[in-house]
Design a protein that fits this description.
The protein is α/β, with parallel strands linked by helices. It is built from 12 helices and 8 strands. It starts with a helix and ends in a 5-residue tail after the last helix.
Length: 362
């Protein structure tokens, strides 16, 4: 009986289209047809909203030193103690409120799968079956390690890794890339590898964002007085340590405003999802929407340009917690503009990134 490593090695030679190389001896094992892989990646999702599923997911996420960079000697006892004892309950309740019960999965999983299927169809029209398109998650399933293993076993000798984050941050793009390279470290026959750069200022992405705003505003009739661009936050010191995330977020907002043809007083940049006691990028969305309402700006729209797919931070945090903060401060109309998700303009922008990065490979 084969052990796990031997079984994995054997899988390399059992792909359905594997053949013996030309001029090889008759006892040479079959080798799968060489293909190019495109692996898109998102943050991740728990397998369920029950306590143990949430605990496993949160443990993996909050143990990532790109996310929480405190000393493990201090952080891990706190994490394994009070945090992972209590937080799975509150996080599980939040996930339950948005869960896709029909599919038995989180909205992020549903949307990322749909994005992948549309990209597979679009790239199939360009390249036929020479390019394989898969998706993975940095935390949870399908894991990066397992997906890379499967792609190599099916003949991918070149893989383009594409984290679906418009802006770069160490806690998002870098940790996704880290995990991809860890997966490559386990391969006996490593594929050639590329990573796609963030696309925060790409005209096709900005145009897709603008179209989503225009559609929403058109359906509302009377346009909101303020568009709040809410980005996921990071600690303020990350900016001071050289992380470009804050600057890239500000540029995305500026380019969106210019594309819409608006003045500065109709759009603002904020940051959400603060965690822990230290200072994060400001202004905080939950506080800023309340300030707007208190100043009489009682009709706003909120968009989340840092997220490629709707998830817990948008569907629960923005559309429930942040909405509540605005309304409790006197706000009258709160409109959430969904993420670009699998919108055709978004898929076209992602396809553009992929095609550009496959240059020279196909």
């Amino acid at each position: 009986m084969l052990d796990a490593k031997s079984a994995q090695a054997a899988a390399l030679f059992t792909a359905k289209d594997a053949t013996r190389p030309d001029h090889a001896d008759e006892d040479h094992p079959p080798v799968p047809r060489a293909r190019i892989g495109v692996l898109v990646a998102n943050l991740g999702t728990p397998d369920g909203y029950d306590y143990w599923s949430m605990r496993r997911y949160l443990n993996e996420f909050l143990s990532d030193k790109r996310v929480i960079d405190y000393s493990p000697l201090i952080w891990q006892p706190l994490l394994q103690g009070v945090i992972l004892t209590k937080r799975p309950f509150s996080s599980g309740a939040a996930y339950k409120s948005i869960w896709n019960e029909d599919a038995g999965e989180s909205p992020l999983m549903t949307i990322t799968r749909s994005q992948t299927e549309k990209l597979r169809a679009a790239l199939g029209k360009r390249y036929g079956d020479d390019v394989m398109v898969r998706f993975c998650m940095r935390y949870g399933n399908p894991s990066t390690l397992k997906t890379v293993r499967e792609m190599v076993a099916e003949g991918c000798q070149k893989i383009l890794f594409f984290p679906l984050y418009p802006q770069y941050a160490g806690a998002t793009v870098a940790t996704a890339n880290d995990q991809f390279f860890r997966a490559l470290m386990k391969e006996k026959w490593q594929p050639a590898a590329r990573t796609a750069a963030p696309y925060f200022d790409r005209p096709s992405y900005i145009d897709a964002l603008a179209q989503s705003v225009e559609r929403t505003y058109g359906a509302l009739g009377t346009p909101p007085r303020m568009l709040v661009c809410s980005y996921h936050g990071v600690p303020q010191r990350y900016l001071l340590e050289g992380d470009p995330y804050h600057c890239q977020c500000q540029k995305t907002t500026r380019l969106l405003r210019e594309r819409l043809g608006w003045d500065d007083n109709r759009i603002t940049t904020t940051f959400q999802s603060r965690f822990g006691p230290e200072e994060w990028l400001q202004p905080y969305t939950v506080e800023e929407v309340a300030r707007l309402a208190e100043r009489g700006v009682d009709d706003i729209a909120v968009i989340a340009p840092a997220f490629s797919a709707d998830c817990i931070e948008t569907l629960e945090e923005i559309n429930e917690e942040i909405r509540e903060s605005f309304e409790e401060a006197g706000g009258k109309r709160f409109t959430y503009i969904p993420c670009l998700n699998d919108d055709d303009a978004h898929i076209a922008a992602l396809e553009e990134v992929i095609v550009e990065n496959l240059g020279g490979w196909i």
